[in-house]
Amino acid sequence: MTPPTAQAVAQRVEGAVPPGANPGPGGMRASGTHAPKKRRASPTARRQRRAACLFLAPACIMFAVYVIWPILSTLRLSLYNWDGMSDATFVGFANYVELFEAPTFYTALKNNVIWLALFLLAPPLGLAIALYLNQAVRGIRFVKSLFFAPFVLSGVVVGLIYSWFYDPTFGLLALLLGHGIPVLGDPRYATAGIIFAALWPQTAYCMILYLTGLTTLNSEQIEAARMEGAKGWTMLWHVILPQLRPVTFMAVVVTIIGALRSFDLIAVMTGGGPFESSTVLAYYMYDQAVKYYRLGYSAAIAVVLFAIMLLYIVYHLRRLLRSEH
Length: 325
Hints:
Blueprint: H1 6-14, H2 43-77, E1 80-81, E2 89-90, H3 94-101, H4 103-119, H5 122-133, H6 140-152, H7 155-166, H8 172-177, H9 190-214, H10 219-227, H11 233-243, H12 245-260, H13 264-269, H14 281-291, H15 295-324
Antiparallel strand pairs: 1-2
Helix pairs in contact: 2-15, 3-15, 4-9, 4-12, 5-9, 6-9, 7-9, 9-12, 12-15, 14-15
């Protein structure tokens, strides 16, 4: 056999291919050549992308106009002193400094924390009622309608009903206890009384969410768990609740938002009293804007309230996403 020449050895070492030669199936590409250009999207793919953008455009525009723009406007307004009629005066962070030095702010913040702690009873109560109502027995539809009724009532109606319930002279609570207790007139009980009234419709809302989630459970997993002997609390904790995790996340987030933006029941039942003992951040914001025409100061309260909501929602969202991985 004729020994290979030096040029052939060099071509083999460097992986070069002689000019005009095509590389084999496993051969290497000739040096100096470029990778093929990326293929352009087909006309069908471009039309699909254009259609998707057109469908999303109205929702994006509405979100920008009704959500993003008001948030940015509130952030800007919080840096001004404005009464709604005269020219606005730039004051920087003076509104925030005054806010953090006001005793009413800390009272409202404390009440918001109490609202948040007690309001989180609504998801487990709603789950318990949903589990009770999720059975095929005679008359269960009528019972469901009774539990569903508070959800369709407005906050004003709920506030009036519980104001009559708490009335120390002729209220139902006075009849049950045998003597009247001024729940809404006592700074020690006013906040708890309002929260108890607010839990009524909020529990009904969580119940509806869980009833909807129970209809989507995987029956095969439940039957397999029953064959393995799971029942009662074990079935609920290891089989049902993991499938209801998205519903639980929605119920918790909605409950947190409802607790932090509580306003209507306070306005109807106590007006923030007695002695501002039942005021919360949302009502404090309304009070400063409507009664005292301090729109810049009110916007600063709104920014703080929005930041608290955002922290809670991001925290729970991260927990949900982490648990799914």
